[in-house]
Each structure stands twice: as structure tokens, then as C-alpha cells.
Amino acid sequence: MDIDLVYLWVDGSDPVWLARKNEFLSVAPAATGDANCKGRYENNDELKYSLRSAEKHLPWIRNIFIVTDGQIPVWLDTSNPKVRIIDHKEILPAEALPCYNSVVLEYFLYRIPGLAEHFLYANDDMLVGADLSPDFFFAPDGYPIVRLKRKCCGRLSHRLRMRFAKRVTVYRQTIDRAAKLIENKFGKYHTGHLHHNIDAYRKSDLREVVENAFAPEIAAVVTNHIRDISDIQRVLFAYHALETGRGHLKYVDKNESLRISLQRSDYMKYMRIYRPKLFCLNDTQYTTDEDRKRVRPFLESLFPKTSAFEK
Asked: CA 160 from chain center: how many Å?
């Protein structure tokens, strides 16, 4: 079984990209709070270390695709035959451009030219902490292992949304939208949500969801250039796989999948306690620049060896 690895990546400190984004926001409604915070775009060089972790612990990966908006990491060796940069324009419909919304980008990963049927999807802040085999991600029948957290995102009634508007993030509401679409189609409301770490998918399953099962609903939100409350989170793919018998549910704990917020003071403490197979360094609206200064030294201590993907 060929398995590829796909990343979304952006360097939010790039002045050219930033000027382009700010120019667009000057004529388009801007999202606020968690939907458009600095942490959504900030580059702490996590991608470099994520690739080091993948080379070390997932040596069986066939090809790596990095989806970007006219950017290339300065340290990336683009001559490496296993890695390819994919520009937004290669996969997004014209009406979705420009796109500063990762939710919309995730809908169209299946359009990546040459992508294997089986692939892993990661944000650049997601890393591998232990040697893993393909069967960690895909069952013997070829269907993906769907990893969810048991923590319930909760049904968000209109009354609750109004009462707790400041506490319910855009992200949680987009999960709720996905859950309700599945409930309307299959009669089951899923309360688990994605573990915010590397996930396994089949290209044909994404195509089925976007082009057939929920085509009108997806088409209605592809013009959300910035994250919006009307977005449908990619957990829709996971729920659909489970309801159609094309996925295997597995609830995760912190030993398997750990999420570390950057505002935590001691990242290594959590690594020592949980020894996670997968981990994520989560940059949010609560993260400060002082917090971000700890990222590179921490990751360098874990993955000091330069990968074949670096110049």
C-alpha cells in the first residue's frame, strides 16, 4: 500500500504574503478571535522538525506534498524527489481564491496531482514521537483508523450560542455543523471530535463527500476566504467514513495523541509523562511571542538530525 503525507504550510511572517493578505482583508470582512488570530499563520519552523520526525519514525512514506500559497520554506531542498510543493491554485476552485482558510483547503486535498489513494494529513505543528507502522493509520482492509477524542463538542442550540457566545469558539461551531449534517443524513449525532493530530484518509472518500454526499453544503462555503462560523470542519470526512463502513473508530488517550498548548511553560514535561506516539504544539489566540521562542529549542532537542528534505 502506497501512503503519502500531506501538509498545509504558511509563513505568516513573510512580508509579501502578509501584504497580500492584509490587502485582501481591507476589502473583505475579517474574522476575529480564534478564527483569524496570529497563531493560525505564525511560522515557528515546526514543518522542518515535523519532516525530521516523519523521516525518523515513518520511513515508509512514499511522497510528501506541502500545500502553500506561493511560498517555499527557505530551508527546503526542492530537488528531493520525494517532496513537492503544491500551490493553492493547483487544487482550489477559482471562487475559493485567495484562501486564508485551512478548512476550505482541506476539502480539496484529494485534488493534489499524483496523490496516493491512501494518505496522511498533517498541519505543520504535528509531529511523530515514536516508530509507527502503516497499520497504525490504516486497517488491513485499507480503511483508515478514525481517531477521535471522547470529549463531547456538544450540541450547540441557538439559545446556548447566544448565552455563551464568548466561550464557544468558531472551531467548535464548525464541528457542530459537520455533526448535524451527518445526523440529518444518517440519523446519528457524533459527539467525539478529531484528536488534532496526524489523520489518515482515502482520496476517494474525500471526493465522495465533496462532490456527491454533501456537494451543495460544501459549495456554499468554499468562498469563505477567512475562517467563518458557517464552515464545515473536516471531521465531516471522519463521521462519513464511520457511517458508510469505510473507517474504524478508535478513541485516543494522551499516550497515543498529545496536544500541547504553546502557552504551557515546560513542553518536555508532557513528553516525559505521556511519551506520545503523535504530538502537536498548538499555537492559539492565547499564545504570546515569548511562548513561541521556546518552540525551536524544544524541537531541536528532540530532532537534532538534519533530514534529507533540508538544504
From this structure: 27
Is the peptide bond prior to 15 cis by the omega test (within 30 degrees of 0)?
Answer: no
Within its chain, how far is the Cα of 60 from the centroid?
Answer: 21
CB neighbours of residue 75 within 10 Å: 14
Radius of gyration of the chain (CA): 19
Q: C-alpha grid cell for residue 164? A: 455563551
What's the predicted TM-score (pTM) here? 0.89
- Report the distance separating Cα 22 and Cα 19, nearest Å: 5
Which amino acid is residue 123, in one-letter code? N
- 306: DSSP letter: P
Quick one: which of 259, 300, 258, 254 has its CA closest to 283? Answer: 259
Is 40 in contact with 227 (CB distance < 8 Å)?
yes
Each residue's pLDDT tens digit in the chain (311 positions)? Answer: 999 999 999 998 888 998 898 888 876 554 444 444 444 445 678 999 999 999 999 999 999 999 999 999 999 999 999 999 999 999 999 999 999 999 999 999 999 999 999 999 999 999 999 999 999 999 999 999 999 998 644 454 545 444 444 456 788 889 999 999 999 999 999 989 899 899 999 999 999 999 999 999 999 999 999 999 999 999 999 999 999 999 999 999 999 999 998 988 789 999 999 999 999 998 877 778 888 888 999 999 999 999 999 99
Question: CA-to-CA distance for 157 and 176, rounded, in angstroms?
Answer: 10
Provide the H-helix boundaries in 151-279. 158-163, 170-186, 203-208, 215-219, 235-243, 267-274
Q: Which three cell numbers stand for residue 93?
A: 476552485
Quote the CA–CA distance of 32 and 266 in Å, as a whole number. Answer: 29
DSSP string, 84-99: EEEEHHHHS-GGG-S-
Nearby residues of 26 by Cβ (< 8 Å), 6 or more positions away: none
